[in-house]
Each structure stands twice: as structure tokens, then as C-alpha cells.
Amino acid sequence: MSDAPSPLDPDAGADREPSLLAAARAGDPAAFDQLMAPYRPELTAHCYRMLGSPFDAEDAVQESLLSAWRGLGAFEGRSSVRTWLYRITTNACIRLGSQRSRRLLSPDFGPSRTVGDDLGEPVTEPVWLEPWPDPAESYLRREGVELAFVAALQHLPATQRAVLILREVLEFSAADVAELLDTTTASVNSALQRARQTMAAQPDAAPARQRSELAELGPDGVRALVDGFVKAWEDADVDALVDLLTADVRFTMPPLPAWFDGRDDVAGFFAGGVFATPWKLRPIPVNGQLGFACYQQRTPGGPFRLGAINLLTLRDGRIAQVSAFLDPELPRRFGIPEIFSENLAPDR
Where would I find the RNA polymerase sigma factor 70 region 4 type domain in this sequence (predicted)? Predict the structure, then answer.
């Protein structure tokens, strides 16, 4: 019996791609699945940036892989498998995006509230930009999934959004992007210039802004910020929390439409609303940023149940925004327990 690796051996490496491709083109679905597996995480991240929703991203990837399977016989190998897949997924995202509402952050939806204002009823239609459970570190280094960047992308027309991502995040050439989008290099360059102008008006939307903030703080600074935030929140210590915030901090909580702008209103809402019940926090990575699973004790002596996923946006070492996502589907999406227990606390 030969000791040569099977074309379906998951440890065979990238050099097995030609064998997998040949087997898949011959109608082997297992070979196709293995051929697609290394690309799926980055394709999902790409679709998330395009659509602003992990759910929509999964739909787009599923649709794209089905199209790839059906169209595999027509793949002539003039481009790489990766480029071919990006062509399929990008166009799927453009189609899906034209059928669904643009994803928004709270300030895009309406004006801020002041302490004592009604918080409004949850807006349940899929209008909110949704958080992204972190992909593998290799994708984070290369691909911008930070919340402000993805939010800013949603303000671009679909083609400009695709061009900006493909050129500046994924580093495809202008000629490759033109082929992917069935257009000309001149059109790609024009779309990129317009997209850059729009994005330049939003300085916090640089694709690696938060990674730079974390790098500037360093491991000790990040640990101190995380520990200080957790302690202040769990102790309901408004003064300690305020010390961590910028003067123009924002607090949002979709799907509720209400949000608060500025340290005074944010602190007032924490004191009178958020800290009315006890909390436990567990640090988790979200969108390549600092995030926390926030567990709320709704009844005295009762369990702490997941109430929110908080994502921090930093500026100059302070917290410039706390985005609290209240979607009850978050436990499933993030793969974290709904009930807090002490053994959930990670090493920090």
C-alpha cells in the first residue's frame, strides 16, 4: 500500500490543491469541501465587511460556495482559485446588499438622548451593524474588521465598497479587481478615489486604528485597562468608569434606538440605568477590539445571564465608545455560555 498522502488528507497542505481541484471537477463533493475549507474564513470576513452582518455574511458564503460547486466545470484556471472565489463572493454580496437595508450604528439612526429620556422600543428589523466574533489572528492582521471601519464601509455604494476592500485590504491589483467586477481598470481607479475621499472624512475608520491603539498601550497597558473596566463595571463604580472615558464618549445599545453622547450623559445613564442590577464581565475579542460578555443578575440571588456584548473603541488610551449589543442571538453566534460561572473568567 502506498504511503503517499491522499488528496483528501487535511494535513497535505497547499500543494495538494491541484489534486483536490481535479477531484472536485470530477464530481467529488468531499474534495470540493476540502478545497474550499482554507478559504472559508477569509471569504466570510470579506462578506462581513461588505454586508455588516455575520448572518448575512454566512448567507453570502453559502450562496457563493453553491455557485462555485455548480460552476466548477467552467473554471479554466486562468486565475487562482482564491481570485475566482473572490469574484463569486463579491458579486454575491453586491446582489444581497441591493436587497437588504444598509447596516447602521446608533448615531446613524437618530439623535442622542439625555438621562431620563425614554429609551424607545427595540428596532427589530435588520438595520443594525452587528458585531463579529474574531476570526483567526492571521486574518485580523491582514483584514480590517474593526467596527468603525466596517460601519464606514456601509456608507459607500456597493461597487466602491468592493473596490476599496479588494484594493486596500486584500491588496488585489487594479487589473485583478477590474476582472473580478467585469469593469475597466480606469473605472476601478475612479471608484477607489471616490471611496477614499468618503472614508477620509471619517478619521476613526482606518482599517487598523484600534490595533494601533492596542499596540500603543502595550500588553501591560491593555491589561490595566481591561482590569480597570471590569472592576468599575462589576463594582458599579461610576467615578472609576468615568476616569477611563474620553470627554466625548458615546454609549450605544442596539437594538434599542437610544444612545448617549458625552461623559456626563453616559455617566448619568450608567448610574441610573445600567448599574441598577449587578453584573459580571468576561473579556472576549470582538471585531479585533476589546470586548466583554456582560452577564446581568436580573433577580436577587438568581443566575447571571448574558445581557450584552460590549465592544470598546479606544482613542489615545481612553474609551471613546462603548457599543453594547443586546441581541439575544449573541450567545449562539459567539459560542459563549448564556449563564456566567466563575470558571468562565479567562487569564488576563
Answer: 148-199
Per-residue confidence (pLDDT) for residue 61, from 0 to 100: 97
Domain at 209-344: CATH code: 3.10.450.50
Cα–Cα distance, 56 to 101 (Å, whole number): 11
DSSP-assigned letter for residue 339: B
Look at 313 and 139; give whichever has higher pLDDT.
313
| Domain definitions of the chain by residue range | 209-344
Burial category of 329 from C-beta neighbours within 10 Å (exposed 0-12, middle 13-18, buried 19 and up): exposed
Half-sphere exposure of 322 (CA within 13 A, CB side): 31
pLDDT at 128 over 70: yes
133: DSSP letter = B
Three-class DSSP category at 69 = helix
Cell numbers describing residue 111: 439623535
Each residue of 36-66: b (16+ CB within 10 Å) or e? beebeebbbbbbbbbbbbbebbebbbebbbe
Give the pLDDT band of residue 344 (cuts 50, 70, 90): low
Cβ pair 50, 153 in contact under 8 A: yes
Cell of 203: 478619521
